[in-house]
Design goal:
By secondary structure, the protein is α+β, with helices and mostly antiparallel strands. The strands form five sheets. Strands 9, 12, 15, 16, 17, 18 and 19 form a seven-stranded mixed β-sheet that branches. Strands 1-8-6-3 form a four-stranded antiparallel β-sheet, with no helix packed on it. It starts with a strand and ends with a helix.
Length: about 400
C-alpha cells in the first residue's frame, strides 16, 4: 500500500514552492518523519518529512518544478525500511560499472551540480559532509582545491575533446531559485514604489577597535560568542532611531506608522542567497545578546535551518557589505521598511585630527531611505548620531 507525500503548509500567505532537491531516491528505505525532499520557498528551504516508514516510491515531480501546498509529490510504499536495501543495489551496481561522468546528477542540488560543472570534480570521489552524508557545494570546492592536476588520459582519442572543451565558448542556463526570484521582485518593487535616496557619512573606528581588542577575550569567555562590530552598530542604530523615529517608521497607505520598538533585520549570506532574519527588540538587548542572536542566525542560515517566522517583520535593516570588501554602496530598502544602513570595509585613510594629518581606520556609512517619509535633514541627523555613538562608545552605555 502506498502513502502519498504532500506539500505541507509552508507559512502564512505562502501557497507554493519549488522542489529544490530530492533527498531520497526510489527504492531507498525511509523512516517516519525522515526528510525526503527539500522545498525552496520565498524565504527559506523547507524539508518535507515522510509521513510513514517504508520504501521510497516514485517521484511525482522533478527538481525545479513549482508545487502547490497540499499537492502530492511522491509516494512511500509500505514495508520495513530497514530491510529494503535490495532495490537500491541495482542502481549502485550500475553506477559502479558506469564511467565517472555517469553519476546521477538528479541526486545533487542545483548549486552542487553547478560547482561540479565548474570544477570538473567527479562527485563520486568526494565524501559529503552534509546531512545524511549529502554532497555540499563546499565539499566540491574543497575537493577541487586539494586535487592535483589530472594526469594525461591513457586513451588517445580523449585528448581531442578535452582540447576543444578548453578552447570552446560555453553557456549554461540555470533556473533562478524561488528565493532569487522573490529577491529580484521585491528589490524592483522597492525601486518602483519608494522615492529612494542615499546619504553618506564616514566614521572613525578607532574607539570601537580599541574596545574590541581590549575586551574580546574576556567577552568571549563570559558570553561564549565573539565580540564583533555588529553589536556596536546595532546598539548605536537603536539610539539614533530613537532620536529620528521616522527612520524606524513606514508608510501604510496614506498613514505613517511609527514604532516604539526596534526590530533590526540583518542581511545574512546563505548558500541559496541573501536572507534577512530579524533581531527583535534590539533596543532592549545588550551587545552580547545581539552578537549571540546574529551569530546564531549566521550559522543556521548556512545550515538552512532558519524558520519562516524569524524573517518576518523588521522595522530597519543593517547590511554589512564590508565583510566582502565593499568600499561603498547604495543599498536598496527592504519594504515596507523605510531605511537601510549599509556598512563597508574598514581601511586606513588620512584624516585631520587637531590640525594634524594622521592615519585612522575609517568606514563609509550609507543610509538609503524613502524620501516620501524621511527628509534629508533627518537622514543626516541619523547618520551623525550613529557616527557619534561609534566614535565614542560610552554614549551607548549611558544612552546619549
Amino acid at each position: 500500500m502506498a502513502t502519498e507525500v504532500k506539500v505541507p503548509v509552508l507559512g502564512e500567505s505562502i501557497t507554493e514552492a519549488t522542489l529544490g532537491e530530492w533527498l531520497k531516491q526510489p527504492g531507498d528505505p525511509v523512516k517516519a518523519d525522515e526528510p525526503i525532499a527539500s522545498l525552496e520557498t520565498d524565504k527559506v528551504s523547507v524539508e518535507v518529512p515522510s509521513p510513514v516508514a517504508g520504501v521510497m516510491g516514485e517521484h511525482a515531480v522533478k527538481v525545479g518544478d513549482t508545487v502547490q501546498v497540499g499537492a502530492m509529490i511522491a509516494t512511500v510504499e509500505a514495508g520495513d525500511g530497514a530491510a529494503a536495501p535490495a532495490p537500491a543495489e541495482a542502481p549502485k551496481a550500475e553506477a559502479s560499472s558506469a564511467p565517472a561522468s555517469g553519476n546521477a546528477p538528479a541526486a545533487l542540488s542545483p548549486s552542487v551540480r553547478r560547482a561540479v560543472l565548474e570544477t570538473g570534480v567527479d562527485p563520486a570521489t568526494v565524501k559529503g559532509t552534509g546531512k545524511d552524508g549529502r554532497l555540499t557545494k563546499d565539499d566540491v570546492i574543497a575537493a577541487a582545491s586539494s586535487t592535483p592536476a589530472a594526469p594525461a588520459p591513457s586513451a588517445e582519442p580523449q585528448v581531442a575533446p578535452s582540447v576543444a572543451a578548453s578552447t570552446g565558448r560555453k553557456e549554461e542556463r540555470v533556473r533562478m531559485t524561488r528565493l532569487r526570484q522573490t529577491v529580484a521582485k521585491r528589490l524592483k518593487d522597492a525601486q518602483n514604489t519608494a522615492a529612494m535616496l542615499t546619504t553618506f557619512n564616514d566614521v572613525d573606528m578607532s574607539a570601537v577597535i580599541e574596545a574590541r581588542t581590549k575586551y574580546k577575550d574576556l567577552f568571549e569567555k563570559k558570553h561564549g560568542v565573539r565580540l564583533g562590530f555588529m553589536g556596536f552598530f546595532a546598539k548605536a542604530a537603536c539610539l539614533a532611531l530613537k532620536d529620528v523615529p521616522s527612520v524606524n517608521g513606514q508608510i501604510d497607505g496614506d498613514e505613517i506608522v511609527y514604532h516604539d520598538y526596534v526590530d533590526i533585520s540583518v542581511a545574512v549570506s546563505a548558500p541559496q542567497g541573501l536572507v534577512v532574519p530579524v533581531v527583535r527588540d534590539a533596543d532592549r538587548m545588550t551587545v552580547a545578546e545581539i552578537e549571540k542572536t546574529i551569530g546564531d542566525f549566521g550559522k543556521r542560515a548556512k545550515d538552512g535551518t532558519l524558520k519562516m517566522e524569524e524573517m518576518k517583520g523588521g522595522t530597519f535593516t543593517i547590511s554589512n557589505g564590508g565583510v566582502f570588501g565593499s568600499l561603498m554602496s547604495t543599498p536598496i530598502i527592504n519594504p515596507p521598511q523605510s531605511a537601510v544602513l549599509g556598512l563597508h570595509r574598514i581601511e586606513d585613510r588620512p584624516v585631520v585630527v587637531n590640525g594634524q594629518i594622521v592615519a585612522r581606520p575609517m568606514m563609509y556609512l550609507a543610509l538609503s531611505y524613502d524620501h516620501r517619509l524621511i527628509d534629508g535633514r533627518e537622514a543626516v541627523t541619523f547618520l551623525v548620531a550613529l557616527k557619534n555613538a561609534i566614535e565614542d562608545p560610552t554614549r551607548i552605555l549611558i544612552d546619549l
